What does this fold into?
Amino acid sequence: MSPLLVILCILVAPILALCAFIRWNPGASGEWMLHLALSLKLDKNRFRILRNVMLPTSDGATTQIDHIVVSQGGVFVIETKTYGNNDRGSRPGSCWIFGNAHDREWTASYPHGIHFRFQNPLRQNYKHLATLSECLGIPIEYFKSIVAFAGMAKFKTEMPPEVMHFRDVPGYILARGSDDVIKSEQVPEVAEAILSWQGTLSRERKAAHVENLRKNHDPVRNSSQPIATPRAESAEVPSCPKCGAPMVLRTRKSDGGSFWGCSSYPHCRGIRDIEPSRHT
It folds into this structure.
């Protein structure tokens, strides 16, 4: 084999592999493109980018978040959708998206009368915001929802401002990422707290979540309360005294204090007080 042919193969092989990846894994490729855009355009000293974060929910299940960007402007929670990259045997760029903030479902329209309905991604992402708020004990107002569409999908109805193409996400965050919502020194603390909660999930629960997917108060900057994290000093998160399910840290609305609440709430309302030694 000639040296020129070898060089050509070295150059072409990665391009072919990338094309195959995009064709057969449109969802993963969309998330990868968004991650690349965020990494290139957001200053790592000001923004903390977390990818594929899996967290426990209050009902004992799990939820997966595509991207989280922690900044002084708040915590941006990003749900990624990929349509139009041969994702359903259609021509690239032939997918039209119809929907609004109030619809329960949105519609992706393809050539030859093919239509695909999917859950309103704004509603889907709100569940992510609620889970983060419960885990961290931070008011939900400080979490900002973004729905990013990758691929060649085109919006055919007027969309809310937080719904956009993935290439517009970094600019959207930069325009809002300097607001005085979270202290600069708390940005890495919030990011580490999120990763700590992800660390409470076993491999089995993470694998079960992936398999299921395949089958179908006070501003943080003014708060003296610590951000809620799983307590490392205890080998395990405490169990509910009523049903035995794992417990999660919650925040009382009355005084902003923390307590352990059952992860099976509202089916179980078991609680435990946090011992004073846990705060020292």
Observations:
- The mean pLDDT is 77.
